[in-house]
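=== Structure Prediction Worksheet ===
Name of assembly: unnamed complex
Input type: mixed (protein and possibly other molecules)
Chain count: two
Listed entries:
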Amino acid sequence: DGGITQSPKYLFRKEGQNVTLSCEQNLNHDAMYWYRQDPGQGLRLIYYSQIVNDFQKGDIAEGYSVSREKKESFPLTVTSAQKNPTAFYLCASSIGDRYYEQYFGPGTRLTVT
Amino acid sequence: AQSVTQLGSHVSVSEGALVLLRCNYSSSVPPYLFWYVQYPNQGLQLLLKYTTGATLVKGINGFEAEFKKSETSFHLTKPSAHMSDAAEYFCAVLPSGNMLTFGGGTRLMVKP
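=== Predicted Assembly ===
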């Protein structure tokens, strides 16, 4: 079955540690996205990538980093510079020119204490 | 900049009652419009979308939405709520750029 996989579903880290969230898709989509979801704030775009080896900052990129070395993978690193990292993180992908039709993964809930 | 406002962060209806979730957007040019649904601890699923053409759009699970340009609205409705409709619903717009802008979400609760 085609889809988007995010792992792990729940992640716990100590403050000051970097952590990498995984996102893999087998839909052969060109574009991939990372969103952060906080209660009452909807989804906010962190980074997106329209093609391998290229990515752009979204609205809230500070404290995050990404890479896109393979078409099917778009890992997100939450660095120690991110002031409020505890959130629900969603990865999505879309066919190259259909950015409006995004397919979402199940999400990773990150808790930093 | 585009913005999306969803009136009411929580909406409660009885099973069998009409569901109405409100969405207004700010744009000088009609954007593409979307409704997504999110069940607890899951990703988002596209319910329906408006791009061009007929302003009344039908989606999955019996939901529909009507684009009203004069009111800059795209409210989501369902004639009869079912317990399985309990979820969070997000309105989103796609302006002239290529990135979706989401509203804050509305949590729908369905009472038996």
